[in-house]
Design brief:
Length: about 150
């Protein structure tokens, strides 16, 4: 999910505390003058309802992060109001379609951070894992020692 309300001060880690990839966010966000924060609506189970969850269940580390709601110019109340409006009026409804009025400047910043995570991993010898406390860790550990099957 990409926040289409413009540039925000922070980046929300949904399911925070799960994957080592989260640590890669910090320097990228710092370079943008932004910070990371933990998921706000944990009770809604977004991590377990998202598209990446099938990868997680198979042991493949996944990162679910998105722009926050504290709009750089209009503040947190504006961001929260926009999110609430979207959730009540458009989410999973016929009106849930592209709107040319969206401010995609925040999406561009978010994508730069996510691209940076991928670029960092692609240019390193690092194979990310789940944190030891994650329920998905044992499957990842097993896949990293098992020979690949064609």
């Amino acid at each position: 999910a990409m926040a289409v309300l413009g540039r925000t001060r922070a980046f929300e880690g949904v399911g925070e505390g799960s994957s080592e990839m989260e640590a890669l966010l910090t320097p990228l966000l710092t370079a943008q003058g932004r910070t990371a924060f933990a998921e706000v609506e944990v009770q809604n189970g977004y991590y377990f309802r998202s598209d990446h969850f099938n990868f997680a269940k198979a042991g493949v580390p996944a990162l679910y992060a998105k722009g926050g709601l504290d709009h750089i110019e209009k503040g947190a109340d504006y961001g929260k109001a926009q999110a609430e409006r979207y959730t009540t009026q458009d989410y999973h409804k016929p009106s849930d379609e592209f709107d040319p009025a969206w401010d995609l400047s925040g999406v561009i910043e978010d994508l730069a951070v996510l691209y940076g995570v991928g670029e960092t991993l692609a240019n390193s010898e690092q194979w990310p894992n789940w944190y030891a406390s994650s329920a998905f860790r044992s499957k990842r550990d097993a896949m990293m020692v098992a020979p690949a099957t064609p």
